[in-house]
Write a structure and sequence with these properties.
By secondary structure, the protein is α/β, with parallel strands linked by helices. 37% of the residues lie in helices and 14% in strands. The protein has 10 helices and 9 strands. The strands form 3 sheets. Strands 5, 6, 7, 8 and 9 form a 5-stranded mixed β-sheet that branches. Strands 1-2 form a two-stranded parallel sheet. A two-stranded parallel ribbon has the order 3-4. Helix 2 links the parallel strand 3 and strand 4. The longest helix is centred in the middle third of the chain and has 25 residues.
Length: 256
C-alpha cells in the first residue's frame, strides 16, 4: 500500500515477509511475524509504524507506551481494505494518491467481474483453503473476491475469520473446484495432499481432479494486489473446459 501511494522512499524498515514490490526486499529488516528487534526505535528512528492484524508482544507493548507512533489497520472485508488504504494515506499525507488507488482497484475489480460475466453464466462453487493443518477455509475478503469472479465460496462468509470447519459441511456443499492458497507457501503446494486426506476422496472436486493452486500472496494480503488475486481466480474459472474440469493449460499454470 505504501509503495502504491508513492511513499516507498519514506520506508526505513520492513518485516522479513515484505517482498512486494521488489524494492521492498532491499529495505532493512525489523524482524518477522512474532519477533522484532527490541531496539526498534533506536535502530530505525521511525516517525510512524504501520501495523496490521497481529502484533508481536514487543510491538504491542510499544504501542501502549507510544500510541501516537502507530497507524494500525485490521481489515476483514474489501470495504475495510479500502478504508485501511485511506487511513494509511492520511497518515503519510498521500490522501489523493490513496483515493486514486481505491478508485483504480474498484475499477479493475469491475473489469474482472464483467469479463467473467460475459464468458460464463454458471456460478461455480469453490472451496478456497488458506491453511492445511488443520484445513482452514479462507475468510475475510476472499469470499467477496470469489463472488467477483462468479464463484460461491464454501464454509465462511465475507468478513469472517479464516477457520477450521466440520468436514460434513464441505461434503454437503460439494464444491465444483478446490483452490489452495496456503499462507506463506506461495504456489509451492502439491495438490496430492488434498486427495490423500482421509475421506476427501468422496468430494466431487477431488474425484474429478479439479484442484488448483494460486500464489497465496495474491489473496491473503489486504492491499492492491488483491486485484491480481481476482484475476488468478478468474483464470481458474476461464480455463475449465465445458465439462467443468480443469484444462491442461490450467494445470500447467496452477498445479505444482
Amino acid at each position: 500500500i505504501l509503495y502504491a501511494i508513492g511513499a516507498g522512499d519514506d520506508i526505513v524498515g520492513v518485516t522479513a515477509f515484505c517482498d512486494e514490490p521488489y524494492d521492498a526486499q532491499r529495505k532493512p529488516k525489523v524482524g518477522g511475524w512474532t519477533e522484532v528487534y527490541s531496539d526498534l526505535l533506536e535502530r530505525f528512528q521511525p516517525d510512524l509504524i504501520v501495523t496490521s492484524m497481529y502484533l508481536p508482544p514487543q510491538v504491542r507493548e510499544l504501542k501502549e507506551q507510544r500510541p501516537e507512533l502507530f497507524c494500525h489497520v485490521e481489515p476483514h472485508t474489501l470495504e475495510d481494505v479500502y478504508a485501511s488504504i485511506e487511513t494509511i494515506g492520511a497518515r503519510v499525507s498521500r490522501n489523493e494518491e490513496a483515493t486514486a488507488l481505491i478508485r483504480r482497484m474498484r475499477s479493475e475489480f469491475d473489469a474482472v467481474r464483467q469479463m467473467v460475466a460475459a464468458r460464463r453464466r454458471r456460478t461455480t462453487r469453490i472451496y478456497i483453503e488458506e491453511w492445511s493443518s488443520p484445513p482452514m477455509a479462507s475468510g475475510n475478503w476472499v469470499s467477496e473476491i470469489a463472488a467477483i469472479v462468479g464463484m460461491e465460496q464454501a464454509i465462511v462468509r465475507a468478513g469472517e475469520w479464516s477457520r477450521a470447519f466440520a468436514f460434513e459441511d464441505l461434503v454437503r456443499f460439494d464444491p465444483d473446484c478446490i483452490v489452495l492458497s496456503i499462507c506463506g507457501a506461495r504456489d509451492r503446494v502439491p495438490t496430492q495432499q488434498v486427495a490423500s486426506r482421509l475421506g476427501w476422496g468422496e468430494l466431487r472436486a477431488v474425484r474429478d481432479d479439479r484442484i488448483a493452486v494460486i500464489d497465496d500472496s495474491l489473496l491473503n494480503r489486504p492491499g492492491p494486489r488483491l486485484v491480481d488475486g481476482a484475476r488468478a481466480l478468474a483464470a481458474v474459472v476461464e480455463q475449465m473446459d465445458p465439462r467443468g474440469t480443469l484444462s491442461a493449460a490450467s494445470s500447467n499454470l496452477f498445479r505444482r
